[in-house]
Amino acid sequence: MKKITSYSWSILFVTILLGLWEISARLYDKSFLFPSPSAILIRLWELKTELFIHHLPPTALTILIGLSISIMLGSTLAIAMYSKKPIEQAFYPILIASQTIPVIALAPIFVLWFGYSIWSKVAVTVLITFFPITVSVFDGLRSSDRNLRELMLTMGASAKDIFYKLDLPSALPSFFSGLKVAVTLSVIGAAIGEWLGAQAGLGYFSRRMMTQFDSAAVFAPIVLLSAVGIIFFLLVVVLEKHFLQWRNHQ
Amino acid sequence: MMTNKVLEFTNVSFHYQATNASKPTAIFDQVDWHVHEGEFVSIIGPSGYGKSTLFRLVTGLENPDSGEISLNGEVTTKRLGKVGYMPQQDLLMPWRTILENVQLPVELQGGKPTADQIIQLLADFGLAGEENAYPGNLSGGMRQRVSFLRTILTGSNVLLLDEPFSALDAITRLTMQEWLIDQWQKLDKTIVFITHDIDEALFLSDRIFVLAERPVQTIREVIVPLSRPRTMRDLARPELMELKEQLISELRSEARL
């Protein structure tokens, strides 16, 4: 019951916002420029086969592959930086600097390298999600308790024991925070990748509809993209709840 | 009483290296010290006089610059894993259940007790039915008992307890002190107990060691003139009041510096 009341304010706000949008769109009455929410939903329904069968799967796949690569590479780099100081000193500044590169500007080069295949979109997704994952895992590892580490040493723990039984569990909460950020960014990454060159995908479809002045059909895949982001986010929340059960007992 | 020395310092000197923030600090200067098998001894002294360093040396987290430390009659620099250490904060892992926390030293050293045996031990420690709870659910006193059981399960015959009750309220503390003596008598272990509470030291210990100089050259020994079992009322005896006065003035003259 508490959950419902805690969401009710945001539901109310969104409803008012959508209501205002609907009214103003109807008053303006140029649906090819400014479609109403109801028009978007209707278009979404009309395009359902095309969107769900042809365009949703490649985008979802891009997001999944991109995130998996980011998690693997990011965690590996974070662990390497945590275990060897020279690696940290070599990579940390580069990592920060990489974030000042406008990813969108780099995306065309990926198209050049990887062509119109899925890999150019995956590359954009990885580039955009790698940073939050690496930093969150690294910070998580560094947050492990020094006193607990010494206590484990007095129990005869090896470096390996300390890594698996102390450092990794300590990094988990921070990893999940980073993953939540990365999941939302991955949707953006996949969409940007598709704008630049693709044969299918929600981002690609949205852009194609723009050239046809079908603005309701521009919005329809965006609604889907956002739904995909929310679903992936909730999935992470479920995983987090499962792996961090102890946090409910604080 | 002529029993074996389980722990012995011979001519031990130790100092901390200079860091950016501090000069090199000498903590011990040719110190001799020993503890007999089965004893309960306390170490008292103002903060910063080497109590924690003494523990770090005994556990093997640090080794002396010169001199020798022998454990169970054997001089060794590899003492990690051989002495049970109970820290001041309970340092339970919040992501492990009580049972998993207590099992930590068993996991690390491949000890004998099975989960069933540990659950029985938890029950003996007044923690029946808590094995699947998380540390966040337990009170401070319960967490300290879990931490103590974890220390016992290191299997070491020497247990170092570093101000384990300092964060507890007065009543819980009193109960825990009586409980600890009870456990010590059952367990047949040697206990070295750090405290800065003189009453606590008098009530618990056979001998008290006073660290009150910097660097420490001699550790002064005070024998507590009480037989066991003891009650808190024994501390009100004139000879104990006198001993307490004496210890207070000794520590105070140092702490003022």
UniProtKB/TrEMBL annotation, chain A:
Matching CDD domains: TM_PBP2
Presence of the UniProt keyword Ubl conjugation in the record: no
Membrane topology value: Multi-pass membrane protein
Keywords: Cell membrane, Membrane, Transmembrane, Transmembrane helix, Transport
Primary localization: membrane
Cell compartments where the protein resides: Cell membrane
PROSITE patterns, A to Z: ABC_TM1
SUPFAM superfamilies, per database record: MetI-like
Annotated ranges, domain ABC transmembrane type-1: 56-236
Segments traversing the membrane: 60-82, 94-116, 122-141, 175-196, 216-239
Family that this chain belongs to: Belongs to the binding-protein-dependent transport system permease family.
Protein name in UniProt: ABC transporter permease
